[in-house]
Amino acid sequence: MVKIITRKSLGTQNVYDIGVSSDHNFVIKDGLIASNCFNKSHSTAYAYVTYQTAYLKANYKLEYMAALLTANSGDTDKVQKYIASCTSLDIDIEPPDINVSQVDFTPLGKKILFGFSAVRNVGQNAIACILEARNEGGSFKSLPDFCDRVDLRAVNRRALESLIYCGAFDKIESNRHQLIKDLELVYDWAQSRARDKASGQGNLFDLLGEISNNTNNNKISKAFETAPKANPVPDLPQPEKLRKEKELLGFYVSDHPLKSIQQTARYLAPINLTQFAEQKEGIMVCALVMLNGVKKVMTKKGDPMAILQIEDLTAQSEAVVFPKYYERISSLLQVDSRLIIWGKIERKDDKPQFIVEDAEQVETVQLVMLELTSQQTADIQELDRVRTILKEHSGDREKAKVPVIGIIQALNSRQAVLLGRQFWVQDSITAFQALNNAGFPTELKQLTGN
């Protein structure tokens, strides 16, 4: 590809809509090629489409984002990016709702619900069956009511488990573990009732239901009230619930393991994965991530290294740990771990690649929060005192992993500044005591709040 270095105006020229069979590349001069030179008809068309989409996003943002998510539902990276955009627009993305969701992403109030088609193990026949039963009989009142009204040949046990685990029944019963235990009994009960209906048999409860229906002009059977129920059990731990959501929907939806520490972590990792491509090559950057996958590989020399699948609240990406750093941090590389990772951006085939040089588990990361006034930051002697104290407590550079954050107070604003790694400390408690003893208000803060 040849880049255009300079341009010169030729005034008003006639423009023709030239059709070409492949890319819009045109010869400029002396055999040089200008790549993707669109003529005015293209420019006008793209401008008009841009105006339409901008108008929809500004005035019908809920419907627009739901349509955008639906149109790109097969592209995990794009969906995650659009979910992050929804968050910035104050639009909540919620798991499917068995009584509200449709096939695709569904706008509802000020939120968007995942559609049934996004749930793994739930096929088109199952979705059609659910929607038909809901349209005919109204909202489902319970898991037994659902199983009694849908065709269990289309909505099999695996599909039901997936719907429960992804949160589709949460508005009916928030205890997903209880629903799974109940399903073991309810599914057989509902199948037995389906067989009885198919053979023309009924039971006393069906008869009472029919009498009640005739009296109250109500089409909904109350037979589900007699369904068996498992003994009460506590709900699944939150990490397990989120793991199941991610497995079945492809994303953390009702919550995210990194969300609770996002505010504190912004001091340490102010950029996210979507911004990595904008960073200069070779500059040390830091990210707060979930570790989704670890692939250990061997180099030609027989040294171990790893390729990591990582994600944050905005995107998923890949990272590489070369042998030089793998030995030191390999014990931390466990799937589902929350990590702070440090490294550099390199470009491979014109694409950014994150090279991990260090990592720490979020649960072990402490921050030294150093309060400074605007007057102190302008006083060279005061800054020298701070610099001296921090260097005294930095110890071994490889072991100095406690970040120091300067909180600068100026009038009514507070600005957080991450100090360079040469000022990070090895022992947070002794550094904290030394700074306070020297008259610099300091506090220790755990990165994670849970």
What does this structure look like?
The protein has 3 domains: 74-249, no CATH class; 268-363, OB fold (Dihydrolipoamide Acetyltransferase, E2P); 365-446, no CATH class. It contains 14 helices and 14 strands. It is globular and about 90 Å long. It has helices spanning 40-59, 61-71, 76-88, 124-137, 143-149, 157-165, 176-198, 204-216, 238-249, 262-265, 323-329, 374-377, 380-392, 428-437, and strands at 26-27, 33-34, 92-94, 106-108, 111-113, 284-298, 304-311, 316-321, 338-348, 351-361, 366-373, 404-410, 413-418, 442-446. The longest helix has 23 residues, at 176-198. It is of the alpha+beta class and 450 residues long. It has a 5-stranded mixed beta barrel with strand order 6-7-8-10-9. The chain has a 4-stranded mixed beta sheet with strand order 13-12-11-14. The chain has a 3-stranded mixed beta sheet with strand order 3-5-4, with helices on one face. The model is unreliable at 209-219 (pLDDT under 50). A hairpin with a 2-residue loop joins strand 12 (404-410) and strand 13 (413-418).
